[in-house]
Amino acid sequence: MLHRRTVGDVMTEEVITLRPDTPFQEIASLLDANDIAAAPVIDDEGAPVGVVSASDVLRHETGMPDPQGQDGNDERAWGKARARTAGALMSSPVFTARADWTIPRAARELRRRHVKQLPVVGDHGLLTGIVSRSDLLNVFIRSDVEIRGEIERDVLGRILGLEEGSVAVEVQEGAVTLRGHVPEPRLVPVVVGLCQGVDGVVAVDAHLVAARTD
Q: Where does the record place a coiled coil (predicted)?
């Protein structure tokens, strides 16, 4: 089987974290110094209990419920605008991911929750990393050389056991072109399907001839 990258493969393991009693000025300094858009808030055990984002900081600085300074009647939003600690400023409950999630699953969760990052937790609910939209996008922004190497090594060689050189692989901006021959007709759609499953592949154009037609 192909190795499909998971959240655990792309997440950041060294996470900048906050505590519920972390003061506002320290929060702003940490986000700025580390050039991050958000940081998880963890409890004494290391379990995430919320997330503080740059938007929360801006909301606080404007003294209004949202960064644009528009009026609002949401009591929670006004409370965050007056917050002095991470516990009062954070968004909660926190939505989390698991290290064994597939990249598409994590992407769907980010979209469904309308967030830009997800803390990653282990079996006991403790923080093990954080995954962002950019982490997921990097999976698909692979060089043509990487993609070609994986197809030749893993798809054609390790999985299908095809003779080296029987199928020529060209990759241009993620689009794969296959030329050559395979032992039997049923392998043509198999080769195409496996190549489409390689991370970073955007299309597969197969010009394959089957050696046997019976």
A: none
- Centre a 10 Å sphere on the Cβ of residue 27 and count the other Cβ atoms it contains: 24
The answer as to whether 2 is a domain residue is no
- Provide the CATH number for the domain around residue 171: 3.30.1340.30
Omega within 30 of 0 (cis) for the link into 119: no
Paired with 131 in beta bridges are 118
**DSSP-assigned letter for residue 133:** H
Count up the domains in the chain and report the number.
2
pTM of the predicted model, to two decimals? 0.70
d(CA 173, CA 50) in angstroms, rounded, equals 39
Residue-wise pLDDT for 42-51, tens only, equals 999 999 999 9
95 touches 118 (CB < 8 A): yes
Amino acid at 171: V
> Can you state the angle between helices 133-140 and 103-113, rounded to 10 degrees?
140
**Which tens digits make up the pLDDT trace of 80-135?**
667 789 999 998 899 999 999 988 899 999 999 989 999 999 999 999 999 999 99
